[in-house]
């Protein structure tokens, strides 16, 4: 006898909330770690009664951005409306993001003792005339787990209270142009619970600084003691993220010990060096180098590396778990092109899915010999911005894209690609290609309109 089962369609608006006690309902909701899933769950509950105490999120989402409510409640500045919103949901918030010189008295009244507070931008003396020491003394009593500072002012009051931040695990610091501040910060890091560290001695974003050119003041030099403290941190803590910009050390420092500690750190997931050529060379020069087993992102930005170094890097990638390789502004001379070809040739045997080669001197001549290497790679995203690629180079790459089975996004911003090169990219791109970025190539309005129409017909997203 044949048995058949009728498949029933799940009604997303069924009254599922009545089948769960409110306590369990809240526990389930609080486990949803992204905004879209959290609010889809609330939608599926179907009624205020079913949503119970979580109905307040549903109501507030009609008037405020959902990602300002969950999974991190964002308080960008002190004002009554935002504080009123937060006070309504504070009991459910396990994470809160705050910025600037927030009213700490009000915040302490509402935030739960166990709530993790992420301070996205700490104040400095360029934004207030009030003394900062009393504010930071009170601030340090909160459960601060993450701190970012991108200012240009005095960091002394913040550095002073760092040892009191017993729950701090993420630290992102820019503007560390004072060697005394840097020394005190690294002494704290050596024995702290911090597992994610980003250091930039210049103010602002490190990548933007590279594009703007040399900084007005020289970078502070890392002393032997500072390098030792970084080394100790890698040896004793489960470090997951390390980013450093303009890493210059004095003659008495032992950077090789730091590099060895980095490569023996089993928990490291992201490693980034920007404008740190000497340190970058120590990392990629030795043959037979084995990357940490969990490393998934490797960034060398604005670091001049030799052709042999690039080839060594390609060989090391084969045994690694790296998925994102970023060499922006790092391969800038003609003599490096053989190394880049060796790197591209090694990619089919690697886990790399994203490759960023902005401003690496890879113009038409390079792609005459290397475009075919793109066909067999496992890459899904390729960035070739600012490489002086013209119609000829774009057409060579387009023929490679016709044969690729993996690339779905490719960026050509700020090259010299004209209308014919753009048409060839659209016409020849293979079935997997879904997004092409040609912004900054100087297309007229009429040409942009015609190209975007052509892309739409082919089911592609085109940015011009």
UniProtKB/TrEMBL annotation:
Source taxon at top rank: Eukaryota
Compartments, record wording: Cytoplasm, Cytoskeleton
Main location: cytoplasm
One GO term describing the cellular component: cytoskeleton
Keyword annotations of the record: Cytoplasm, Cytoskeleton
Name listed for the protein in its UniProt record: Aste57867_16044 protein
Organism: Aphanomyces stellatus
Gene: Aste57867_16044
């Amino acid at each position: 006898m044949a048995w058949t089962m009728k498949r029933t369609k799940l009604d997303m608006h069924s009254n599922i909330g009545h089948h769960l006690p409110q306590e369990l309902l809240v526990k389930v909701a609080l486990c949803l770690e992204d905004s879209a899933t959290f609010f889809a769950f609330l939608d599926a509950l179907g009624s205020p009664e079913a949503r119970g105490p979580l109905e307040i999120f549903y109501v507030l989402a009609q008037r405020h951005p959902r990602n300002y409510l969950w999974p991190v409640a964002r308080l960008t500045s002190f004002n009554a409306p935002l504080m009123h919103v937060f006070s309504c949901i504070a009991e459910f918030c396990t994470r809160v993001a705050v910025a600037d010189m927030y009213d700490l008295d009000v915040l302490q009244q509402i935030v739960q003792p166990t709530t993790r507070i992420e301070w996205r931008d700490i104040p400095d003396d360029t934004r207030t005339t009030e003394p900062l020491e009393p504010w930071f003394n009170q601030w340090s009593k909160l459960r601060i787990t993450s701190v970012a500072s991108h200012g240009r002012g005095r960091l002394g009051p913040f550095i002073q209270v760092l040892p009191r931040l017993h729950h701090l695990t993420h630290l992102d610091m820019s503007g560390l142009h004072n060697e005394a501040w840097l020394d005190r910060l690294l002494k704290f890091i050596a024995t702290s619970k911090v597992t994610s560290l980003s250091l930039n001695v210049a103010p602002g974003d490190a990548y933007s600084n590279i594009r703007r050119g040399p900084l007005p003041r020289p970078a502070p030099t890392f002393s032997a003691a500072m390098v030792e403290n970084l080394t100790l941190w890698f040896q004793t803590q489960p470090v997951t993220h390390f980013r450093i910009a303009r890493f210059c050390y004095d003659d008495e420092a032992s950077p090789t010990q730091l590099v060895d500690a980095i490569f023996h750190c089993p928990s490291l997931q992201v490693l980034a060096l920007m404008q740190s050529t000497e340190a970058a060379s120590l990392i990629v020069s030795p043959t037979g180098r084995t990357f940490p087993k969990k490393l998934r992102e490797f960034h060398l930005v604005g670091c001049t590396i030799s052709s042999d170094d690039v080839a060594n890097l390609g060989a090391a990638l084969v045994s690694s778990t790296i998925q994102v390789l970023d060499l922006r502004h790092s391969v800038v001379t003609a003599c490096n092109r053989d190394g880049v070809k060796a790197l591209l040739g090694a990619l089919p045997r690697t886990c790399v899915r994203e490759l960023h080669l902005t401003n690496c001197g890879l113009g038409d001549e390079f792609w005459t010999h290397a475009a075919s290497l793109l066909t067999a790679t496992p890459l899904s995203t390729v960035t070739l911005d600012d490489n002086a690629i013209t119609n000829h180079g774009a057409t060579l790459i387009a023929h490679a894209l016709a044969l690729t089975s993996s690339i779905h996004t490719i960026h050509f911003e700020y090259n010299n690609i004209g209308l014919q090169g753009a048409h060839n990219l659209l016409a020849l791109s293979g079935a997997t290609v879904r997004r092409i970025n040609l912004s900054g190539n100087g297309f007229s309005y009429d040409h942009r309109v015609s190209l975007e129409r052509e892309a739409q017909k082919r089911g592609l997203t085109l940015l011009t």
